[in-house]
Amino acid sequence: RATPGAGAAGGVGYALLAIQDRFRSFALRPGVDLVMDATDFDARLARASLVITGEGRIDAQTAFGKTALGVARRAQAAGVPCIAVGGGVEVEGIEALATVGAVAVPVVERPQSMEEAMASGAPALERCAERIARLIDLTKSIA
User: What is the chain's pLDDT, residue by residue, as a tens digit (143 residues)?
Assistant: First the structure.
């Protein structure tokens, strides 16, 4: 529990830590960092004026290194604003993202079952994107 990343992928990280002494070169790294490094994320970020990332749920687990937080950290380091879109958004996730200057925006607009949310996912995501675009336009008019 105390080792970051050990609970990832259903505990695979912990299992690997248990056998790490059998390997000469072994390090537990957040998957988001591996993916961003492999895709030259920082170079792309240098050309960006806004980052929009997403996660199924932005919640207490976000603080432990989920993708949205990893992306938001890199965006903050580059001085690029970041919006994290989540199918579900909880206060703990909002707070975790706020520590790196990112804003969380929920896709789900009202309480509903998982089945209902999944069935209406595409239209809800479109409406979420429209709200974000309107907020961007609004900030231009007050700047």
Answer: 556 666 666 667 777 777 777 776 667 777 898 899 999 999 999 999 999 999 999 999 999 889 999 999 999 999 999 999 999 999 999 999 999 999 999 999 888 888 998 899 999 999 999 999 999 999 888 87
DSSP 27: -
What is the pairing mode between strands 51-58 and 103-106?
A: unpaired
- Please name the helix (run of DSSP H) or strand (run of DSSP E) that holds residue 84, with its range, or none: strand 82-89
What 8-state DSSP symbol labels residue 47? T
Domains and CATH numbers, the chain: 1-39 (no CATH), 40-142 (3.40.50.10350)
Tell me if residue 109 falls in helix, strand or coil: coil
Residue type, 16: L
